[in-house]
Design goal:
With about 375 residues, the protein is an alpha+beta fold. It folds into 2 domains: about 160 residues, no CATH class; about 180 residues, no CATH class. About 35% of the residues lie in helices and about 20% in strands. The protein is built from 8 helices and 16 strands. The strands form 4 sheets. A 7-stranded mixed sheet has the order 2-1-3-4-5-7-6, sandwiched between helices. Strands 10-9-8-12-13 form a 5-stranded antiparallel sheet, with helices on one face.
C-alpha cells in the first residue's frame, strides 16, 4: 500500500477529475453561485483552491484528517489505512466554498466537509464560526450540529489568504428553498438532491421543516443569558434536509454568531418570558423568509410556517430547565404568560422588533406587507396551545 493516499480533485458534476492540465485549472473561481464565471474578479483560481485543500489535508502528516476520520468512525485510523481521497468542490457560496472530502478505507468510507473562506464576508466570520461550533457541540452534544475539527490557516495565495476548517459532512442531506412549481404555479419547497434529482416536498411535509427549524434554533437558545444563533438565513442554505421513508430530518450546518440579540439592563428572572417571546417573534419571521430557488426574489412562506414554528419553539422551550426560577416550572410560567398576551401586545412587540432591523435590509418591504396577517396567525396559534 502506498505511503500516501491517492488524492484527486473533482467538480460537482463528478464527470471527471480536475488537474493542472485541465482548462479550468487557471480560471478564477466564482465568488458566489449567482456570479457568472467570466464576470468574476476573484484572485483565486480553481487550481489555487484545490491545491489549498490538498495542503490542508496533508498538513502535519494528515493529522486533522486522521483525527476526524477516527472520531467519526469510532476506529483508530492511520495514514496507510486510507486508500484514496476525493476533494469535491460542492458549491460557490457567499460565505464559503465548501468541499466534500470523501475518504475511502479498506472496509468503510467517511465523508467530511472543508469549509473554505475566499470572500471578505467569509474571512470575517470563519474563525468566529469555528469557535462557536466548537463551543456549542461541546456544550449541548446535539446531533443536528456538525462536529468540527482543528482549524488551519494557510497564506497560500499572493495578496490573499484562504481560511478553512474541517467538519462533519451530513451524508444524504440537501439544500432546500422556496420555489414556484411550474406544473401548477404554486409556491412549494424544492429539495436540491444531487443523488435523486431535485424534487418538491409533499405539501403535508412542509410543516415538519418549520417545526424542526424552530426546534433546532430554540434548543440552542439560552433562556437565561439570551444567547442565540443570529443571523441565519434559509436563503444562504444554513439548513439542509433529508427526506427518507416519509420522514423529514434537518441539520444546521453554519453558525455565524452566537450572542444575545437583546440586552436587558438589571436582568432578573421576571424578564425571561419577555425575552423568550421576543426570540419567538423574531424566529417566526426568519422561518418564513427565503429567496426563490436560493438566488431569486425574496419569498415569504405560507402560514403553515407559523404553525410549525410555534410547535417547534414550544417543544424545545419546555425541555429547558431553569434552576431556582419560581415554584412553577418554566413551562407553566410561560403558558400563564401566554394567557395574558393580547393581540395588541404582539403588535407592539413586533414593531419594536422591526425597529431593531437594519432599515435597508432587503426583507423589510416583504415583512411589512405581510406583518398584519402574520401577527393574526401567530396570535391564533399561541392561543390554541393554551
Amino acid at each position: 500500500m502506498p505511503e500516501k493516499p491517492d488524492i484527486r480533485f473533482v467538480l460537482p458534476d463528478r464527470k471527471q477529475p480536475v488537474d493542472a492540465s485541465s482548462n479550468l485549472w487557471n480560471k478564477p473561481l466564482p465568488m458566489d453561485r449567482k456570479a457568472a464565471p467570466e464576470a468574476t474578479d476573484s484572485p483565486v483560481t480553481y487550481g489555487d483552491y484545490f491545491t489549498f485543500a490538498r495542503n490542508f489535508i496533508e498538513a502535519n502528516h494528515f493529522k486533522t484528517l486522521i483525527n476526524a476520520v477516527s472520531f467519526i468512525s469510532g476506529k483508530q485510523v492511520t495514514i496507510p489505512d486510507i486508500s484514496k481521497i476525493r476533494i469535491i468542490l460542492a458549491k460557490h457560496g457567499a460565505f464559503y466554498h465548501p468541499a466534500k472530502i470523501e475518504i475511502s478505507l479498506s472496509d468503510f468510507a467517511v465523508e467530511l466537509v472543508l469549509n473554505t473562506a475566499i470572500s471578505r464576508a467569509g474571512k470575517d466570520c470563519i474563525e468566529r464560526e469555528f469557535s462557536v461550533l466548537k463551543r456549542l457541540t461541546q456544550k449541548y452534544h446535539f446531533d443536528f450540529l456538525p462536529q468540527v475539527f482543528d482549524e488551519i490557516i494557510f497564506p497560500e495565495i499572493p495578496d490573499s489568504r484562504l481560511y478553512a476548517f474541517m467538519g462533519e459532512w451530513f451524508n444524504g442531506f440537501s439544500e432546500f428553498h422556496l420555489s414556484i412549481d411550474p406544473s401548477d404555479g404554486k409556491q412549494k419547497i424544492i429539495v436540491w438532491d444531487a443523488d435523486r434529482g431535485d424534487f418538491y416536498l409533499p405539501s403535508e411535509k412542509e410543516i415538519d421543516v418549520y417545526t424542526q427549524t424552530a426546534k433546532i434554533m430554540t434548543s440552542c437558545y439560552d433562556v437565561t443569558s439570551f444567547e442565540q444563533i443570529f443571523p441565519w438565513h434559509h436563503a444562504a442554505g444554513d439548513f439542509i434536509l433529508k427526506y427518507d421513508t416519509d420522514r423529514i430530518f434537518l441539520r444546521l450546518i453554519t453558525i455565524r454568531q452566537y450572542a444575545p440579540m437583546f440586552h436587558i439592563d438589571d436582568q432578573d428572572l421576571s424578564t425571561l418570558p419577555d425575552a423568550a417571546m421576543l426570540f419567538l417573534l423574531n424566529l417566526s419571521i426568519r422561518t418564513r423568509l427565503d429567496r426563490l430557488d436560493g438566488i431569486g426574489d425574496m419569498a415569504w412562506a405560507d402560514n403553515v410556517a407559523v404553525k410549525g414554528t410555534v410547535k417547534g419553539f414550544l417543544s424545545a422551550l419546555f425541555q429547558k430547565s431553569i434552576p431556582d426560577f419560581t415554584s412553577l416550572s418554566f413551562e407553566e410560567t410561560f403558558k400563564t404568560y401566554l394567557e395574558k398576551i393580547t393581540r395588541d401586545d404582539l403588535d407592539n412587540f413586533f414593531r419594536m422588533l422591526i425597529d431593531s432591523y437594519h432599515p435597508d435590509a432587503p426583507e423589510i418591504p416583504l415583512i411589512m406587507s405581510n406583518i398584519d396577517n402574520h401577527i393574526n396567525t401567530l396570535y391564533t396559534e399561541l392561543k390554541d396551545v393554551i
